[in-house]
Amino acid sequence: MKTSIPLIGALAFAASSFSSVASAGTAFVHLFEWKWDDIATECESFLGPKGFDAVQVSPPHEHTAGPYWWTRYQPVSYNNLTSRSGNETQFKNMVNRCNAAGVKIYVDVVMNNWASYQGHGNVASGGSSWTPRNYPELSGQDFHSDCTISNYGDANNVWDCGLYGMPDLNTGASYPQDYVANYMKRLTSWGVAGFRIDAAKHIRPSELDTVMAKAQRPWAFLEVIGAAGEAVQPGQYTYIGPVTEFKYGTDLAANFNGQIKNLKTLGPSWGLQASDKAVVFVDNHDRERGHGGGGNLTYKEGTKYNLANVFMLAYPYGYPKVMSGYKFTDTDAGPPAGATNCSNSEWVCQHRWGNIANMVEFRNFTVGAWSVNNWWDNGANQIAFSRGDKGFVVINNESYALSQTLYTGLPAGNYCNVLAGADKCSGDVISVAANGYATFNVPANAAAAIHGGALAGGGCVTDCPPVSNVPSLNVRGTFNGWGNLPMTLVADNTWQATFTLNGQANQRFKVDVYGDWSLNYGDNGADGVLDQTGADIYTTASGEFRLTVNDQTMRYTLEQVGQCNACFAGNFSQMYFRGTANNWSATPMALVANNVWELVVNFDGQSNQRFKFDVNADWSHNYGDNGANGSLERTGADIFTNLVGQYRVRMNDQAMTYSIQPL
Ligand code: AAO
């Protein structure tokens, strides 16, 4: 079932003409009735980062006046590009900004039918005056004779009469052909990457082919609605380019309202076009309003609609188009006033729904595995399948939760469930075991998806750096004057620090995440489990100790490192540090090796900062450093230092030397 993908034409085109903007995308969005300025911003802030390949924009040509959305489908001029979405300058600016963001622009070209609606006068959106069959650049002779399509069983009637009675361009004549082709070439020269040919079904295939040839064959998909029993069918057009596969949305709706286990074989065997000839969608701007037939799901169906989009983006068939429009009850209503973007809740913004946007990246990542593998279903409305060894999706279209251990075909690792939040890794992590199985717990009417482009823990599968629940952790206590001793992440969720305790009265400590007490932990009840802003942790210990904290279980341990005080030999039985750092009080030092006394000191760099060593804490037997040469003399000079921060001060009572080392 491996087959080429439909956007190959688009990519080839982009590569030859706009290699700098060619993207590896596999799905596009229709930002229906969005303004050019807002589309540009959306490309930069959302569509590009989420991997959307392109945006289909509303027709940019000048159109008949009126508040209805469909006035955009009644052209007046291709030379005047002022429409409800903005003017020509804004349009070009949008193309440039979207291209720079890696998002192509597809323009909806309305050539078959021209303006007839005069309910809001005969001055068009850009100020041009017109009457039916009389426009700034076209006149009566450029149109077929006046008649209205009345018989879809007669191909000539469908091709040569007017859709809804609108003037029908004579695409068999050279002047109209050149007029349309020049418009498309102009747009292409501005960086437009492709086209939707509106009402292509109403243009004779040979004539449309000539127009496309004159336009130098840009990538385009053709709107040809297939309906049983009609004289004109999509298959007559696929030699020109991919067509809109309307039956796909009908099939999705029927089975999401029936049993989605049937979708296992969805494709040409269902009477659909070949995958590389099909642009597919759950709904489009016509169908969501009942224009162009119903029988499909829309945003009004909520979860089913959402799941149908997940399926479309996961399933290897066609080039998917995500519909994104605004809320409506009146099917003629034009776009809401105010901002045309997702900050205005009048817009539905389907493309921003986490399940839809994150599935675009799923499709991009799995494009190389163009097959359905490891299919599973519950015999009704729960399905799962993989795309080779690249991604796996589970869709639960039942009203009860799914809990299954399934064979995914994916390499072992921890994967983000990209459908558990707006950000692909903001939800739960699904672990695929070495044997390829993973357990999925999916709520009713929801889905889960994992792929190799969204791995938990920063994309690491093997030999991963440790993960933690907090970005940092510090120990603070009497031993370091309540300064911050940074702890080290030594294993998943496991932080450690080693420091010297001296057994002083009221010796205690806490741990502090950011080093500013804003998120600190002590231990209420001294039960070995940390509590946020809990009580100070007291200890009478003396010597070098290692504190281990697990930021998941919040358990901690304090263990002595190496040996105990009594295990080392010293020339003195005690030693005290005294200086400006402790207001000349006597802080006991710990014997951490034979003859080596140690204390962690928090130096503040104050002027005249200095210290001495005092054997009995009464100055009767003290040591300083004459000549500041590192060797100690009895009642020698104060030892000056301008250091700031935490240092390990050591003194050797045999060699009578000392050192100050940063921690
Ligand atoms: C407006 C007013 C009209 C007025 C007219 C002239 O609404 O009252 O008479 O202006 O002033 C859009 C709107 C139209 C609007 C038009 C112009 O939808 O309401 O008319 O702008 O402003 C046919 C075409 C297809 C077309 C579709 C709407 O083949 O090309 O109708 N779609 C495109 C655009 C659309 C736009 C135009 C074309 C015109 O996407 O937005 O119109 O530029 C059958 C046929 C189809 C036929 C449909 C609907 O399909 O097979 O070819 O589409 O019917 O007439 C089942 C059904 C099957 C049905 C199918 C559709 O399978 O069995 O019968 O569903 O999915």
From TrEMBL:
Any GO MF annotation of the entry: alpha-amylase activity
Organism for this UniProt entry: Simiduia agarivorans (strain DSM 21679 / JCM 13881 / BCRC 17597 / SA1)
Reactions the enzyme catalyzes: Endohydrolysis of (1->4)-alpha-D-glucosidic linkages in polysaccharides containing three or more (1->4)-alpha-linked D-glucose units
Annotated Gene3D superfamilies: 2.60.40.3620, Glycosidases (3.20.20.80), Golgi alpha-mannosidase II (2.60.40.1180), Immunoglobulins (2.60.40.10)
Family matches, as InterPro entries: A-amylase/branching_C, A-amylase_C, Alpha_amylase, GH, GH13_cat_dom, Glyco_hydro_b, Ig-like_fold, Ig_E-set
EC number(s) given by UniProt: 3.2.1.1
TM regions (residue ranges): none
Residues annotated as domain Alpha-amylase C-terminal: 373-455
Glycosyl hydrolase family 13 catalytic domain mapped to chain residues: 26-363
CDD domains given in the database record: AmyAc_bac_euk_AmyA (cd11317)
SMART domains: Aamy, Aamy_C
Keyword terms of this UniProt record: Calcium, Carbohydrate metabolism, Glycosidase, Hydrolase, Metal-binding, Signal
Protein's name according to its UniProt entry: Alpha-amylase
EC top class named in words: hydrolase
Family from the record: Belongs to the glycosyl hydrolase 13 family.
Superkingdom as given in the UniProt entry: Bacteria
Signal peptide: 1-24
GO terms classed as biological process: carbohydrate metabolic process
Required cofactor(s): Ca(2+)
